[in-house]
């Protein structure tokens, strides 16, 4: 099943605690076709909502989409998958799905992720030292 098949749905796993991510997701959700996508807030959902092959730390560290065929897609390719489902972004999906363009988009996304670590770390990924044992 592909995005043009009626009833084909994808699932987007996003981090609502990331200000940039949440704004972008809000744009997609409000776009025509956004209601035909399943949106899962990886920062707040139950572990079961993440489904097979995706743990919370991975979902918060990097953007993931489960395609309509069940394939888990990450990074720039995940954005392209969403754009295929949203008519206003379909033209962008066709351009960015080309191998060379997708490779450049993936490099840019990797740079964004490195820069994002300078100002935002998902709470689930922050290393919290174990508390000292209480004295008897």
| Major pleated sheet | 4 strands, mixed
Number of domains: 1
Beta content: 5-15%
Give the proportion of residues in helices.
40-55%
In spatial order, strands of the major sheet run 2-1-3-4
> Any idea what the radius of gyration is?
17 Å
Q: Which regions contain 5 or more consecutive residues with pLDDT less than 50?
A: 126-136
Strand count: 4
How widely separated are the two ends? 62 Å
Class by helix and strand content? alpha+beta
Distinct helical segment count: 6
Q: Write the H/E string, N to C.
A: EHEHHEEHHH
Mean pLDDT equals 84
Shape: globular
Write the layout of secondary structure elements.
Elements: E1 11-14, H1 19-30, E2 38-41, H2 47-50, H3 56-61, E3 64-66, E4 72-74, H4 76-85, H5 90-96, H6 99-119
Parallel strand pairs: 1-2
Antiparallel strand pairs: 1-3, 3-4
Helix pairs in contact: 4-5
Description:
This protein is α+β, with helices and mostly antiparallel strands and 136 residues long. It has one domain. Helices cover 44% and strands 10% of the residues. The chain has six helices and four strands. A four-stranded mixed sheet has the order 2-1-3-4, covered by helices on one side. Helix 4 packs antiparallel against helix 5. The radius of gyration is 17 Å and the shape is globular. The chain starts with 10 loop residues before the first strand and ends in a 17-residue tail after the last helix.
